[in-house]
Amino acid sequence: MHLLLCPDSFKDALSGQMAAEAMARGIQRAAPHAQVDLCPLADGGEGSLAALIAATGAERRTAHVHDALGRPAQAAWGWLGEERTAFIELAEASGLQSLNANERDARATTTYGVGELFREALDAGAEKALLLLGGSATNDAGAGMLAALGTKLLDRDNQPLAPGGAALAGLHSLDFSEFDSRLARLHVEAAVDVDNPLLGSHGASAVFGPQKGATPEHVAELDRALAHFAEITAHTLGEDHRALPGAGAAGGMGFAARAFFSATLKPGIELIMQQADMSRRLERTDLVITGEGRLDGQSLGGKTPIGVARAARKAGKPVVLLTGSLGDGWEACYAEGVTAAFALADGPISLDDAVARTAPLLEARCESLIRLWQAAGS
């Protein structure tokens, strides 16, 4: 019996790797001789770097960068030397998780540190970069990243703009005379977990700004600033990407990746499964077990378990989904290739208890699942 374990993280409880290890412990209790392939995955958001490193064996490197508020920080990135490929996770440098609640200010936060990670990758000789978008504290449409890579964002007095999305309202011109020339030879793919455009009621500022500290007034201000930035960018480059699905990812970083790096934007789970060689893994497995913290109707928009289920369906493999909770509309997962879905809780339980017990609950569910699987096959 060969089993493929590819969960996402269980938010606030377990990383994807820890979840896969808990699943494996439960399986080994029921079937000590089972072959278990641990392949934690993610959909492009926070935790995707760890999933990619675990799945590919990439080297984990660290770099000195500046965080979303411009403070010195350390950020991890991944390096596949033989393939000259860098894995860059935005959240490592400019992530929301590094800020306290009272530090969140979508008007002022910057993606400068992401540009510093790109410089590290270029210095290492990168020819390809996979940019993982999600979990950002920023709403500057990549302006900080561009500044770190040599672009001058200038106001009417030919002075550099202050960091942050709000300052983009004063942008007059973009000067690429010192833009890092190595970027022209870098193939960039951006992993996105949303399909929002840059602007409007479904755009970066309106949908994601509030969780980054933006009030309704700030949201309107930021949307106008990003619209102005998009207008200047389109005039300068001759192409307009503000309506591109995914342009609003990570505070407009999807827009920047496409406009300035000619990046391909793809659902994060698809890119990460490609790097993890999922097609080969699926060929040799009998059963796939995946999961994440919550499953509901919104999960169909590109979340990890649904991406796994769709790939497994094409390969003709059954998929069991384990999740902390099942929300409204979760039944739609069956149409996407999920064979069965189960919540972890074994009775009435508080959220704090559920988080604390996620690992043993995963172990117990997997042990029961494999015992049932063996009985059904006997």
Automatic annotation (TrEMBL):
**SUPFAM superfamilies per UniProt:** Glycerate kinase I (SSF110738)
Q: Which InterPro entries match?
A: Glyc_kinase_flavodox-like_fold, Glycerate_kinase, Glycerate_kinase_RE-like, Glycerate_kinase_sf
Q: Which GO BP terms sit in this record?
A: organic acid phosphorylation
| Superkingdom of origin | Bacteria
Record keywords:
Kinase, Transferase
What does the record give under GO molecular function? glycerate kinase activity
User: Pfam families attached here?
Assistant: Gly_kinase
* Family to which the UniProt record says this protein belongs: Belongs to the glycerate kinase type-1 family.
Record-given protein name: Glycerate kinase
Give the source species. Answer: Vreelandella salicampi
